[in-house]
Design brief:
Blueprint (H helix, E strand, L loop, with lengths): L1 H6 L13 E3 L12 E6 L9 H13 L3 E7 L8 H20 L4 E5 L2 H11 L2 E6 L5 H13 L6 E4 L7 H4 L7 H15 L22 H7 L16 H22 L12 H5 L5 H8 L7 H24 L11 H9 L11 H5 L6 H13 L4 H13 L4 H15 L6 H12 L20 H7 L2 H7 L8
Parallel strand pairs: 2-3, 2-5, 3-4, 5-6
Antiparallel strand pairs: 1-6
Helix pairs in contact: 4-5, 7-12, 9-12, 12-18, 15-20, 16-17, 16-18, 17-18
The structure holds flavin-adenine dinucleotide (FAD).
């Protein structure tokens, strides 16, 4: 907070980079009789370090209007389970408390945004709506639906608060690989990787406060699968996420460069759940981590490559490729090679249930699967091996992709994320990769095997850690 305040007393005294913002509606002017501004929070579930929240406050301060935050809670979302909803709701509870301290009413609207947000806007005489950005199909449709139903004279804008370089600025097309987007992103970092001004106590109070929220009743009313349990190692919310960032910098960053591909070592940031729910800003993580560049150059550069280049490449892929989670979305060379090898004999064939229960012949694969099922986060290196084996052991690449995405979205706390779709597409369909030596089933898709893992790390140690008997399975 001190760094933010040193940077600017508020967003009003700060030259906001409008390239982060794009107009969704036709009309761009706030009408004179407006009684407030709304930030419709969706992907970026935090108060500070949030360019969408800041833009909404900037608008409200300029017009001397109250500012509201709305979150539209749907009772069901894709394959999300209580593991995901529980994490999200507890994070939102913290957001609501922080908003209250800043005199910004937080409204939890129950239902789809198209059904509840326009009525809220009309009912409260709201003059402008700001939302954040996700490149995924379902949230993109939510934005379209709200646009259709908002009154024509209410300007509606979208801010990319998740990426450092806004997705539409980084590139205007689907990038082929990390090598083609890396320079484009690095070239824009001096412009976009800035400190944030603070979201401040809002000086224009709303006449009608927000309805009180019964979080326990809300949790109980969800219509989601409760068999995938919430995890205990990851405390939801921004404060806990920032504590993980602090522990990463203090304890693990030094070995990130050398040990990040070793699943037995604690070298990763572990931040993906907080990044996924927008509880921690990646930009904040980079601002803090890069302070250690002179001390841990290899690690800091490696982290920037993963958290900025690879992550923003994933958003680029999902934004520009509508088939981001289908074999049709792969490059032609990959589709051709997979087709050519579609009839190849598989050494093993597994049903979804056997995979889900971690009952294959491969103890490393089973251990990785059980790590994901029990802890909600599989180690990054093993995710590649895990998905590639699903290609090897199922009837077709289509089935492999379907199973991998299903399992990933169901058990990973960071699932249903562009990174997940791209991770599965990279492993199974060669997205952002190139052709390798041709072999059975995989064709030219990059292959990984058990012997290769054994050369990289102590496979037995990892298998013992996730032994099904020890886990009580
Ligand atoms: C099959 C498969 C499935 C995956 N599913 C997901 C998923 O559902 N959600 C998800 O966030 N990531 C996914 N990834 C990418 C990556 O494995 C995870 O982001 C990473 O393991 C998360 O742990 P961490 O935060 O400790 O990572 P760190 O290594 O500490 O990296 C920091 C951040 O960089 C980003 N990042 C790291 N690796 C990648 C990558 N390869 N591609 C894009 N961004 C990356 C993530 O935001 C991550 O939180 C998947 C990868 C594969 C191969």
């Amino acid at each position: 907070m001190q760094a933010r305040l040193r940077f600017a007393p508020s967003v009003q005294d700060f030259k906001y980079n409008k390239k982060r913002v794009r107009l969704v509606s036709q009309d761009s002017y706030l009408k004179d009789a407006a009684k407030g501004v709304v930030y419709w929070m969706s992907r970026d579930q935090r108060v500070q370090d949030n360019w969408a929240f800041l833009y909404a406050q900037r608008l409200a301060l300029k017009q001397q209007l109250p500012l509201h935050v709305c979150f539209c809670l749907v009772p069901k979302f894709l394959e999300a389970t209580i593991r995901h909803f529980g994490f999200m709701l507890k994070g939102l509870q913290e957001v609501a408390e922080e908003c209250q301290e800043l005199d910004i009413p937080f409204h939890l609207l129950i239902g789809f945004a198209k059904d509840v947000l326009p009525a809220f806007v009309v009912g409260r005489g709201i003059g402008g709506v700001v939302t954040d950005f996700s490149p995924l199909r379902v949230p993109m449709q939510w934005v379209e639906d709200v646009k259709e139903r908002l009154p024509g004279d209410v300007p509606f804008v979208q801010v990319d608060a998740h990426n450092i370089v806004p997705c539409w600025v980084a590139s205007d097309k689907q990038e082929y690989a990390a090598s083609t987007i890396r320079r484009k992103i690095h070239d824009r970092l001096s412009e976009f990787l800035t400190e944030f001004p603070p979201v401040i106590k809002h000086p224009y109070p709303s006449a009608a406060p927000a309805e009180p929220i019964d979080w326990n009743a809300c949790h109980a009313s969800l219509q989601v699968d409760c068999s995938v349990k919430e995890v205990t190692w990851a405390t939801p919310g921004t404060a806990a996420g920032l504590a993980v960032l602090e522990s990463f910098i203090g304890e693990r960053l030094k070995s990130f460069g050398t040990d990040r591909n070793n699943p037995n070592r604690a070298a990763l940031s572990n931040l993906s759940p907080w990044f996924h729910f927008g509880q921690v800003s990646v930009q904040r993580a980079i601002l803090e981590v890069q302070k250690y560049r002179s001390k841990y150059k290899e690690s800091v550069d490696g982290f920037i490559e993963e958290a900025v280049v690879r992550r923003e490449l994933a958003d680029n892929f999902c934004y520009y490729n509508r088939n981001y989670d289908k074999v049709e979305g792969a490059y032609n060379w990959a589709k051709t090679t997979l087709k050519l090898h579609a009839q190849d004999k598989r050494s093993h064939l597994y049903e979804l249930k056997q995979l889900e229960e971690g009952k294959t012949h491969d103890p490393l694969w089973n251990a990785a699967q059980l790590q994901m099922v029990h802890e909600g986060k599989m180690h990054g290196f093993l995710r590649m091996y895990w998905a590639k084996k699903i290609l090897e052991w199922t009837r077709s690449s289509e089935e492999a992709l379907k199973f991998a995405i299903y399992l990933n979205d169901r058990y990973e706390l960071d699932g249903r994320d562009p990174n997940g779709y791209v991770g599965c597409m990279w492993s199974i369909c060669g997205i952002h990769d190139h052709g390798w030596t041709e072999r059975a089933v995989f064709g030219k898709i990059r292959y990984m095997n058990y012997a290769g893992c054994k050369r990289k790390f102590n496979v037995g140690q990892f298998e013992r850690r996730y032994d099904p008997h020890q886990l009580g399975q």
